[in-house]
Fold this protein.
Amino acid sequence: MPLLSRKPPWERAPQSVKPPLENARREQPGQIPSGGAGGRQTGRSPSGSRLGLLASCANPGCASGWLHLLRSRSTPVFEGGWSCSAACTRTLVQTAVLRELDGRGGEQESHRHRIPLGLTMLQQGWITAVQLRQALASQKSAGAGRLGHWLVRQQGISEQLVTRALGLQWNCPVLPMEFHDAEALTSLLPRLFVDAFRAMPSRVAGGRLLYLGFEDRLDPALALAVERMTGLRVESGLVRGSLFHPAHTRMLNAKFPPVELIEAVSEPVLAQAISRRIEKARPVESRLVRAHDCLWLRMWLRTQSGPLPETDGVRDLICSIGAR
Ligand SMILES: [Zn+2]
């Protein structure tokens, strides 16, 4: 199902037709933002380092030559590269849209070869063959519910043990949630992703490592998107269901950065829509990454001071991708 058709109610407003960034802050002329030409993603958080006055347009095909030096614009910056005009922004965005969409279909379902949960638990001696057989039979006759659910509800196996087994199966840590500060972590990814992909930032360690929690299966594609966007290294882990649900609900109720959702009929239309937003907001940095069937544009309206973006310092644009 296309993700955008599952919009939660608070995001169901017709935002795609509303001019989104009226209050966007503009940088002062002459202030050169961070990053260099070439449009590469640096993997770092947007920082305040500046180019010299002879910054060149990041669009390799830019035709304005040295004339752009006379233009009094230091923003927008897209993927670390400054663009001298709306036309150059559009070119840079078009290239990025194609780059992201070309990667589609390359996501391998790496869990296919995992040892089944029941077998893992049996091998560990955490369940008996009888318990496994009964849970599998119940799962089959009910036609619903994960095996772990049946082991807990019907066979009295502890939820903690099931999550540990899932951790073994996925070769990932089980994340603790004791000190989870949901409100402090909402700036890391859009609410729509937290909701639809059932992912939850659980902690940032040392300002560089983000623990991303999931309930019963990891989402490597989403983890990669978050890593590319935030510049933080992402370590995915599992969270026990009884801890996941309240924390997830708390997070969904917290304040997130403003987001706009758009659906475009074609790639050129999409690139045009994205570059318009960038031209209007004039961000000091912006990045485009794909998360499953969405493109996620994030714009930093001012230089980020710490490892976490400020909720009101970034704006997100989530674009659905039509069939190619
Ligand atoms: Zn240019």
Notes: The first strand starts at residue 77 and ends at 78. The longest helix spans residues 86-102. The CA atoms of residues 30 and 184 lie 33 Å apart.
